[in-house]
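lol forgot to send this yesterday, sorry. C-alpha cells for the thing we talked abt
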C-alpha cells in the first residue's frame, strides 16, 4: 500500500538550497526582500525582512491615551557562533512580531564583534516584557539560525525583569549543518500557589520550544553543550514567566524544575477611535500575542501565527469608537493591534506607514485603554473592494472567505455579507509592499479544500489583482464550489430496524487533521452531527511525533488542538446533549509506516517511547476527566507495533520489549486512577483481524476500526456485501470478542472512492492508496475516482448487518470533516448520500423514532 507522507523537515529546506544555489532574490520596491526558509511545519514559511535599515513595528504603549512614562531596562545580548563569519558578513539580532508574522515584521539590530565567534548588543527594553528574538547572518545570502536538530529557530525568549543579559549559543545556520555535541533538558512546571502541575506551558531553551503535559513535564532534545536560557511562558498569560540558566552536558539530560504562580485577573476595556473611512458594519478585531487574542503559537500558512476567527471582535459604540472588555492576567505582556483582517492584512498602520504593534503590561487593577487608529492604509496604493456572488446552493450559515497570495498562500479570513449570496471585502493594506498578487474565495476559511471550482487546490491558477493609486471595485462570480455540486435528495429504502437498548452508540467521529481555524466551526459541525440522530460525539485530540530519533512526541501548536481547545469542544458537545468520547490519536511523521520502519527501536528508544506514550495517555485521561467526557479511547493503528509481540506494517517483528504487557497493564491502571469514565481500546480491522492484546481485559469495550473489504471486485450488490459483512462479523469478529471477553462499538471508515469496497483505492499504476491521503486538507489524488454511491452502499451493507446482530453495542462514522460538508473522495460522510442513511438509521436504532 502506498503510504501517506508528511515531509516537515526536508521539503522547505530543499527549496532553500535550490534558491541559494541559483542566488535567486525577489526584490520588492524599496527595501523588502523575500527569504525562503525551511521550517518544521507542513508548509514553507516565507520571511519578509528589512535589510536596508533598522525599521520595524511602531510600538504604542497601552494606557488611557495620555503620555505614560515607560520603564526601560538595558539588556545585553551575547551570541556565541559555531564558526567565524565570512568576510563581508554581519550578525544581526531580530526582535520578532508574532502578531503580524514572525518573518514579516522583525526589527533588526546589527551586533558588534567581541572576537571572531562572540558578538554582543545592548538594547533598552520595556520592563516586564517578554521578548521573542532570533539571530540572522547577513551577507550575499541571509541565513537564519538553526537548531542542532536541523530545524529553523522559531524564536528565543527573554523576560525583562531588570538590567541584565543573556548568552546564546547558535547551533548552526540554515545553510550549514551542526557539528557539535548535544544534551537534553527535562523538568516539571509546578504552580507554587496550588502545588499542581501546569499544563501547556511553553518551555523554550536554545531556540527550541515544547509544551508541558498534564503532569507539568517537558523534554527538550538536541541542545548544544553549554548553558542555555530556560524560559517557561504561559501562552494565555495566566501564569508568571520563569527564567534561569540551565547547563547542558554532552549525552546527558539535565533536570530543571520550574516554579510559577497563577496570576490574578483584571478587566481591561479597550476603546478605539476608528478612521473615518472604516466600512460601517465591518468587524474590528483585536489581534494579539496571547491565545485568547488569536495567536496559535504555530507557523501557519506563509509563516503567520494568528487566525482571524479566533480573535475577539469589538462592539461599536454610538460614535466612531468601538470597544471590548477582556479579562486579562495581571502583569501579562500583551502585544496587540486592531484589524479588519488578521495580524498582517488590513491591520492598523502608523503615520509612517509601518505596522503598528501596541504593548500593554496589564496593571494590578481594572483599566480602560483608549487608542486611536491612525489609518488602515499603508503607502499610496488605494483600497481594493472585492465583491463576489456565490452559488445558491452554498450551505446556509457558512462564511465566505478570501485568501491572498503575495508570496505564498496566507491564512484566509471571512468576508462581509451583503445578503442574497453576495459578499464584500475592502482591502486597505499592506498594499505598499506588493504589486500584483493572487487571491481566491473559499467556504469557512477552508481554502485548498472548499474552493471556488475555478481556483481549486493548493497549486491552482488563481485570480490576480494589481495595486493602483486609484480605487478599484472588483466584481467576481463563483459559478460553483469544488466538491459541492447541485444534488437531488437521494431515495432511502425503508427496512425494518430493530431498536437497541439504552447505551447503543450512534456516533460521529471527527477527523483528526485538526487546524486552528476549525475551533469556531465546531458548534455548527456538532449540530450537523446531532441532526443525523447521533447521540455520541467522538473527538480526536492528537499529539504529534515530529521526530523519531530522538523521539519528540508532544502537543504541537498548529497540528494538535491545545488543552483549552479540547475542553471547549467537549463543552459544545455536552451543550447539544451528546455523550462525548475522546479518542486520543498519535500522529506519527513522516507517516505511520515510515515512522516505525525508520525508528531505531533500541532498548533505550523503547524506554523513551513508553515514557512519552504514558505522558500522552495520562494527558488525555486528565483532559477527559476535566472536560467532562464520558469515554476515553486509547490504542489505534499507530501503536500496533508497540503491543506485546508487536509487528511492523510489513509483518516483521518490531522488537517490542519483553515486559511490554506489564507496561501496558500498568499504564491502564494509571489511566483508571485518573479518569472515572469508560475506557475503550481502539483495534484496527482491515484485511486481517489480529488477536486482541491480553491487557484488553482491563478496558470496558473494544472500539473496532472497521475498514473491511466486502467484495473482491466491482459490481457487488448491497445484499451481497451485507452477507459478506455478516460472515466477517460471525466468523472473525465474534470469536475475537469472545476471546477478549468484551463488547464492541464498530467505527466505520470507507472513503467515497472507487475501490473502497474491495480495499484498494488506486494510487496510480498497481499500487493502493492509504485512505488517509484522501482526507482534507491533503490535495486531491487524481488516480482515485470519486464514487459517492459505493460509500453509501458500504454503509447500507454494514448497517443492515449490524441490524441483525444485537451483540454490536454501537456504530460510529469516522473521518467526519468539521469545517464544511464536501462531496469529495474522503471518508467524511458530511453532505453525502451516506449521511442520509445515518439520518434514517440512527434515530431508529436508538429507539428515538419507531
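and heres what i got for the seq, position by position
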Amino acid at each position: 500500500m502506498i503510504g501517506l507522507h508528511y515531509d516537515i523537515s526536508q521539503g522547505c529546506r530543499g527549496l532553500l538550497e535550490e534558491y541559494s544555489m541559483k542566488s535567486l532574490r525577489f526584490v520588492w520596491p524599496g527595501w523588502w526582500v523575500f527569504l525562503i526558509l525551511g521550517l518544521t511545519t507542513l508548509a514553507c514559511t516565507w520571511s519578509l525582512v528589512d535589510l536596508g535599515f533598522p525599521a520595524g513595528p511602531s510600538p504604542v504603549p497601552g494606557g488611557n491615551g495620555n503620555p505614560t512614562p515607560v520603564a526601560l531596562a538595558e539588556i545585553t545580548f551575547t551570541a556565541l557562533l559555531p564558526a567565524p563569519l565570512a568576510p563581508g558578513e554581519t550578525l544581526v539580532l531580530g526582535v520578532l512580531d508574532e502578531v503580524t508574522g514572525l518573518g514579516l515584521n522583525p526589527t533588526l539590530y546589527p551586533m558588534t564583534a567581541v572576537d571572531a565567534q562572540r558578538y554582543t548588543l545592548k538594547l533598552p527594553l520595556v520592563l516586564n516584557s517578554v521578548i521573542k528574538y532570533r539571530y540572522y547572518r547577513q551577507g550575499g545570502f541571509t541565513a537564519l539560525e538553526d537548531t542542532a536538530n536541523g530545524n529553523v529557530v522559531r524564536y528565543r525568549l527573554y523576560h525583562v525583569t531588570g538590567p541584565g543579559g543573556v548568552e546564546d549559543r547558535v547551533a548552526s545556520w540554515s545553510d550549514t549543518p551542526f557539528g557539535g555535541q548535544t544534551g537534553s533538558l527535562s523538568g516539571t512546571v509546578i504552580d507554587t500557589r496550588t502545588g499542581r502541575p501546569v499544563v501547556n506551558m511553553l518551555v523554550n531553551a536554545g531556540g527550541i520550544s515544547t509544551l508541558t503535559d498534564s503532569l507539568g513535564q517537558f523534554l527538550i532534545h538536541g541542545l548544544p553543550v553549554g548553558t542555555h536560557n530556560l524560559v517557561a511562558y504561559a501562552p494565555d498569560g495566566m501564569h508568571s514567566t520563569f527564567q534561569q540558566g540551565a547547563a547542558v552536558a554532552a549525552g546527558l539530560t539535565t533536570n530543571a524544575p520550574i516554579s510559577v504562580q497563577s496570576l490574578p485577573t483584571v478587566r481591561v476595556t479597550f476603546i478605539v477611535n476608528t478612521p473615518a473611512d472604516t466600512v460601517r458594519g465591518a468587524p474590528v478585531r483585536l489581534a494579539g500575542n496571547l491565545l485568547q487574542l488569536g495567536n496559535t503559537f504555530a507557523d501557519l500558512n506563509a509563516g503567520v501565527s494568528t487566525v482571524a476567527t479566533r480573535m475577539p471582535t469589538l462592539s461599536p459604540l454610538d460614535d466612531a469608537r468601538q470597544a471590548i472588555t477582556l479579562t486579562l492576567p495581571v502583569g501579562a505582556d500583551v502585544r496587540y493591534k486592531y484589524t479588519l483582517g488578521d495580524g498582517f492584512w488590513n491591520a492598523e498602520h502608523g503615520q509612517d506607514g509601518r505596522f503598528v504593534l501596541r504593548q500593554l503590561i496589564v496593571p494590578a487593577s481594572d483599566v480602560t485603554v483608549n487608542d486611536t487608529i491612525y489609518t488602515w492604509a499603508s503607502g499610496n496604493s488605494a483600497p481594493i473592494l472585492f465583491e463576489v456572488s456565490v452559488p445558491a446552493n452554498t450551505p446556509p450559515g457558512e462564511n465566505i472567505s478570501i485568501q491572498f497570495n503575495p508570496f505564498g498562500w496566507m491564512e484566509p479570513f471571512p468576508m462581509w455579507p451583503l445578503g442574497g449570496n453576495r459578499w464584500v471585502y475592502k482591502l486597505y493594506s499592506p498594499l505598499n509592499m506588493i504589486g500584483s498578487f493572487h487571491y481566491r474565495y473559499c467556504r469557512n476559511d477552508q481554502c485548498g479544500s472548499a474552493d471556488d471550482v475555478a481556483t481549486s487546490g493548493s497549486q491552482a491558477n488563481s485570480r490576480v489583482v494589481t495595486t493602483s493609486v486609484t480605487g478599484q471595485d472588483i466584481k467576481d462570480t463563483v459559478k460553483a464550489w469544488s466538491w459541492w455540486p447541485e444534488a437531488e435528495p437521494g431515495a432511502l429504502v425503508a427496512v425494518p430496524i430493530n431498536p437497541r437498548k439504552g447505551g447503543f452508540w450512534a456516533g460521529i467521529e471527527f477527523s483528526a487533521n485538526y487546524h486552528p481555524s476549525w475551533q469556531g466551526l465546531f458548534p455548527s459541525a456538532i449540530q450537523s452531527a446531532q441532526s443525523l440522530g447521533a447521540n455520541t460525539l467522538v473527538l480526536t485530540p492528537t499529539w504529534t511525533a515530529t521526530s523519531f530519533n530522538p523521539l519528540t512526541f508532544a502537543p504541537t501548536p498548529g497540528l494538535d488542538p491545545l488543552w483549552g481547545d479540547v475542553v471547549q469542544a467537549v463543552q459544545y458537545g455536552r451543550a447539544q446533549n451528546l455523550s462525548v468520547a475522546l479518542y486520543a490519536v498519535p500522529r506519527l511523521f513522516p507517516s505511520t509506516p515510515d515512522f516505525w520502519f525508520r525508528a531505531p527501536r533500541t532498548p533505550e528508544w523503547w524506554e523513551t517511547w513508553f515514557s512519552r506514550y504514558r505522558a500522552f495517555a495520562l494527558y488525555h485521561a486528565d483532559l477527559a476527566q476535566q472536560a467532562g467526557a464520558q469515554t476515553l479511547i486509547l490504542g489505534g493503528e499507530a501503536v500496533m507495533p508497540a503491543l506485546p509481540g508487536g509487528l511492523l506494517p510489513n509483518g516483521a517483528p518490531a522488537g517490542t520489549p519483553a515486559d511490554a504487557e506489564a507496561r501496558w497493564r500498568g499504564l491502564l491502571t494509571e489511566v483508571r486512577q485518573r479518569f472515572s469514565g469508560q475506557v475503550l481500546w481502539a483495534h484496527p480491522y482491515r484485511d486481517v483481524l489480529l488477536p486482541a492484546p491480553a491487557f484488553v481485559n482491563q478496558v470496558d469495550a473494544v472500539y473496532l476500526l472497521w475498514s473491511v473489504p466486502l467484495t473482491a471486485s466491482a459490481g457487488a450488490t448491497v445484499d451481497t456485501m451485507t452477507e459478506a459483512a455478516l460472515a466477517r462479523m460471525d466468523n472473525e469478529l465474534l470469536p475475537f470478542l469472545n476471546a477478549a471477553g468484551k463488547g464492541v462499538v464498530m467505527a466505520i471508515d470507507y472513503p467515497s472512492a472507487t475501490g473502497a469496497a474491495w480495499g484498494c483505492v488506486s494510487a496510480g499504476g498497481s499500487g493502493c492508496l492509504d485512505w488517509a491521503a484522501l482526507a482534507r486538507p491533503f490535495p486531491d489524488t487524481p488516480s482515485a475516482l470519486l464514487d459517492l454511491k459505493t460509500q453509501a452502499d458500504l454503509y447500507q451493507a454494514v448497517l443492515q448487518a449490524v441490524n441483525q446482530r444485537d451483540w454490536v453495542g454501537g456504530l460510529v462514522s469516522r473521518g467526519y470533516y468539521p469545517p464544511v460538508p464536501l462531496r469529495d473522495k474522503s471518508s467524511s460522510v458530511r453532505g453525502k448520500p451516506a449521511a442520509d442513511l445515518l439520518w434514517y438509521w440512527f434515530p431508529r436504532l436508538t429507539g428515538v423514532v419507531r
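Residues 200 and 212 are 5 Å apart (CA to CA). anyway ping me if u want another try
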